[in-house]
Structures are given as C-alpha cells and as structure tokens.
Amino acid sequence: MDFDVFKKAVMDEMRERFPNLEFGFREMKKLQGESYEGLMVTLPGSKVSASLNLDAYYERTNTGASEHQVMDLIERAVREASQNMPQLDWKVLGNYEQMKETLMLQMIPVKGNEERLAEIPHEMVEEMAVVYRFDLGSNERGTSSVLVTDTMLKSYGITRERLAADAIDAAVKNHPASLRNMNEVLQEMAGDRADFRSDEPSPLWVATVEGGMNGASVIRYPGFLDRAVETIGGDFYVLPSSIHEVLLVADDGSVALTQLEQMVRDINEAEVAPADRLSDSVFHYDSEAHLFENARSFELREAMLAEALFADDEPEQPKSLTVLLVEPNRYPKVVEIGSDLSDLQKAVGGYIEVVYPFEEKVGLIVNEEGKMNGLPLNRALRDENGEVYDVVAGSFLVTGLTEESFASLTQAQINKFEKLFHQPEAFLRMGNHIMALPIPKKEQETRKAAKTRDTDTVGSKSKPRKTGHDER
C-alpha cells in the first residue's frame, strides 16, 4: 500500500485501540536532516504531544513485516509515549524568566540543517552552529528538551543576543564543563579491569559537560579553551567526536593533521550515529591569538605569516585603494579609500569582517555586527543556481585581494561587480526562503530623502575598538 493509505490505516487502528488519546499528523522538521512524517500522540486536555516516526514504520511494511505486526509495534510505542509524556506546565513554558534557567546549548553541523537554521536563533562556529534548547528534565526513556525558535523569541519579546547570554549563564551553572584524560575515562568504563590501567596519560583528552548530553557545546563556554591550554600545555587540535563530546590533542608535532582528519572520518563512519555527527573536519585552538578555527585555516595562516616574515622584497602596502562602495537603496560607486583599518571601519560603520563569496580574487568588507545592530538590508548573495543564501546588512566594500592583504580593483573587476550589485534590493521572507526584489528608482529617491532627514535630526556616533588580527 502507498504511504497515504498506510497513514489512514494507522489513524483508524490507533483511534480504535486508544479511544482516550488524541492523534494527528505533522511533518517533523528535525535537526541533522532527520525530518519525518510524525504521528502525534496527545493526552486529553494537554498541549504537549509525542511524535512517532511513521516513515520508519512504513519502511517495515516494505521489508517483510506484515501490517498487523507493524500496528502492534506502533501500539507499543504509543502506550510507552503516553505513559512517559513529560509533565509540562504550558504557562511556565510561556514565561521566559522562569524558562531561561533551563536553557542549554547544542552544537550541530550547518550542513544538512540549513533549512532549520533559517528559522531558529543560532551562532555560527566555523562549519558548525550553536542552537539553544530548554531542558525539560529526564526520565527512564532519556532526556526531553524543546528547541528555541524565532517564533518563541518573538512571543517572549527578547533578542537573540539576550537569549545567547542567558543560555551561556544557565549552561555553565547547570551543565558544568568536564575535561578528563582518555585513560581516566576508559578506566572508569572498565571498572577494576587491570588491562585498562595505565600510569601514563593518553595524548587524548575528552571535553564535554557533566552528564555528557550535547557536550560538544563546551567549546563555547567562556574561558574553557584557555583553561584547556593550561591542562594540555599549549595549543591543541579539536576532534569533533560527536555532538556530545570533542577530543583534544596537543599540537606538539607528534601527529600529522592528515592522520587526525582520517581518524575523525573513520570514527564518524563506523561509530557515530548520523544524528550525532558533528563534522569531518579537525579544528585548532591558537592559545596566543585565542582563536578557534579550522585546522587547515590555521596551517594556511601560519604559512602566510612565515612567508611574510622571510620575504626578501615584500611589497609595501598601498596607502589608498580603489574599491566599489555599495550602500543600501543606492547604486554602487567607485571610491578611493585609505587602506588603514580605521578607514575601512569608517566606510562600513563599525567593526569589519571580510567574506569571500566569489572564486575571483575579490573580497567583501562588511560590518561584522550589521545584522545584530539592525542595519538596513542591502544586497543578496546568491549561489551558483541564483538562489539567495545570505543578505548583507549595511554598506559594504568590494575590494581586490593580494596574497597578503587588500588591493585596488581592476577596471574589469569594477565593471563586473558594479553590474552584479547595480540594482538596489528589498527583501521578503517567503516561508523558508528569502526573496530579493529590485527597488524602483522613484522609491530609491524616497528612501534616500527619508534617510537624509533622519540623519539631520539624529546624527550618528561611532565607537572605537581595539581590533584583533582577523579584522584585516
């Protein structure tokens, strides 16, 4: 039978077997790409539901199980779900001041979660993202939690920044960081078995949180990585064992990065369930720069630094650059700008970040906190299929690149990127997608006039900031 017929059969059968329960269907958009059609089980008068993966049960009917056997399995799952339904006071869930004490962090991969990340608060960490959950406690079936969404934030009337700060405070307090040598962990698992005893520490250290659930997020705990430096004795590599823990290995030259990368791939393939995989990459923590980054980026940065130190005839950095200035609601224009960091910051109205969305040797210098500070949306960035995957907030510069720094654009580059960013755009969210709409010239003039009036009335201020090396 096809899936729709199967769904109707399940609904009729479960209603007959459990006349006191309420049933429904819903598409469950889960993290890690594990979305499925869910059978929702609800106790009478309750606003809390449990979901059963109907896709998995339907698959059993195609692999030899009879319809009666599958219905019995679903009955057993419904009974268990209804008996272990978390007791949640809906009024409490709607009270952020109470719920913030239960916040926890979860580290997930970006790949496979793009659609969900578009509608939930998160912080990007290389190719991973930190999301936020309310911890509802544990029972014999495991732990229960609720993923915090943008819709929930809107109902609470709080910002993403407030949520992130509160989540860090609650996580550090309720789920303290844990860093132990691998030998200690193995000995604890083995009990009194002598073959696991060792007086020499392992080169591997296990970083997680107490209880182990979603422990990879410990790398975002304030000060944790610097405390790990003291324990390990210097810089270290970070191996994403799973979403529940990471392994730390000293960067002392005893093992090659390629070996560590192969180790991570092998473990993910053989040992880690798909829903628990975090990344196939290896990361690195630079204790001097206090920088967590992809290990390949670290090696490239070190190589570039060494090359700069030993270059015999390093060219002098030009004092000014010819670049393209792209402002919201205006056409791009060619400007001459100073090459100092302060000049670049002034041009975009704050701390800078450089993004590299094109294969050509050009970069976009954007305001690092543009979206956080609510700057007007400017231009869309599109993939090779023309689909919008991000939007730049605030004014930005299109600049050329050398092996070491920024450079003036060539005339060919000016022509190409003026055409690419020529049309001012407005933006509209359509479901999980962002639509970029060209702004007619007349409306551009209206917006420009309104902006001028606001500037004359309010004025603006900029804050100086001591910047790190990654802002160049």
TrEMBL record:
It holds the Pfam family DUF5688. Residues 440-456 have a biased composition (Basic and acidic residues). Residues 322-422 form the DUF3846 domain. Residues 438-472 are annotated as: Disordered. This is DUF3846 domain-containing protein. It comes from Stomatobaculum longum. The lineage of its organism: Bacteria, Bacillati, Bacillota, Clostridia, Lachnospirales.
